[in-house]
Design goal:
Helix content is 41%, strand content 16%. The protein has 301 residues and is of the alpha/beta class. It has a single domain, classed as Rossmann fold, CATH 3.40.50. The chain has an 8-stranded mixed beta sheet, with helices on both faces. Helix 2 packs across helix 3 and helix 6 packs across helix 7. The chain is globular and about 50 Å long. The mean pLDDT is 90.
Length: 301
């Protein structure tokens, strides 16, 4: 099966929100959950799900809240809420620990879940791992009055930003293509299917509210929910896959991520001539790398 419309598709309820998910492969295979990045959805794993399923893995993917077909009616969105969504999915649908594979924000969600719910995670693949806090030389604790004013400023800005006109502009196909050209080093994969995959969730009426919720949530999350604080607490094996030509999450962050994670559990592999979405830019290479690494820990049955 190929294309973005892959797998059996259904819904699950997480708290008050309706969430979309997909599944492909034998039900008794080792579970793999694929987590998309910003602006994408579960269909973005169009070149990966079938290859993993053919090797005996039971492949799942979810639309993170605010994206894809999942609910967009939220006030705050950050990796803690997405992690709780994923934990609910693991408990209610998957029913067993899984290998987590994340692209961009999906990688941060996978890391967060591995730290907060370690019994449900076998291993983590981050391709790559973004977090603005990784650019800071060291965590700094702000005085209480600074934290109060920071919160007020974020709330004010997020509520008055003209997000609806901005999204209406950005969802135009020429601008989507321009954005994808900055994300993809391998541009032959930028086709009409990919553009539509990115465009249709932005056309939903709740898209501006979801974006505002993400601005608030990610800016106001506590230090304990940031990558520099999460990485040292990781117990599971971690594979970092980083495109050498990633223009959105600079490759210079990869050694910092590797230094923060426990040395015994972290492996970094560079993907030459690839950008921010290596799983979709070169799916055959990405799939081979995943399958080789998976076999060291939990080979498919």
């Amino acid at each position: 099966m190929a294309g973005s419309d892959w797998g059996y598709q259904s819904w699950f309820q997480f708290e008050t929100w309706r969430c979309h998910w997909r599944q492909l492969g034998p039900a008794d295979g080792t579970a793999v959950v694929l987590l998309h990045g910003f602006g994408a959805n579960s269909g973005h794993w169009r070149g990966n799900a079938s290859a993993l399923a053919e090797e005996g893995y039971c492949v799942y993917a979810i639309d993170l809240l605010g994206f894809g077909a999942s609910d967009q009616n939220l006030e705050y969105l950050d990796n803690r809420l997405w992690s709780r969504q994923l934990q609910s999915f693991l408990r209610s649908v998957v029913g067993r620990p899984a290998l987590l594979v994340g692209n961009s924000i999906g990688a941060l969600v996978a890391l967060t879940t591995a730290v907060f719910a370690p019994d449900w995670v076998l291993a983590v693949v981050a391709a790559p791992l973004p977090d603005p806090t990784l650019l800071q030389p060291m965590p700094r604790r702000r005085q209480p009055w600074r934290r109060v004013w920071h919160r007020r400023l974020v709330l004010m800005v997020s509520r008055f930003l003209p997000l609806a006109p901005l999204i209406a502009l950005l969802r135009q196909r020429p601008l989507i293509r321009l954005g994808l050209l900055s994300a993809y080093a391998c541009q032959k994969r930028i086709d009409s299917e990919l553009i539509q995959l990115i465009r249709w969730p932005a056309c939903r009426s709740g898209a501006p509210r979801a974006l505002a919720a993400m601005v608030r949530g990610m800016a106001l999350r506590p230090a304990a929910a940031t990558a520099p604080e999460l990485l040292p607490r990781l117990q599971q094996p971690l594979l970092l896959l980083w495109g050498r030509r990633d223009r959105l999450v600079p490759p210079l962050l990869a050694p910092r991520v590797q230094a923060l994670a426990p040395a015994s559990s972290c492996q970094l592999e560079w993907l030459e001539n690839l950008g921010h979405c290596p799983h979709d830019e070169a799916p055959e290479l990405f799939n081979r790398t995943l399958l080789c690494w998976f076999s060291q820990y939990t080979p498919a049955t």
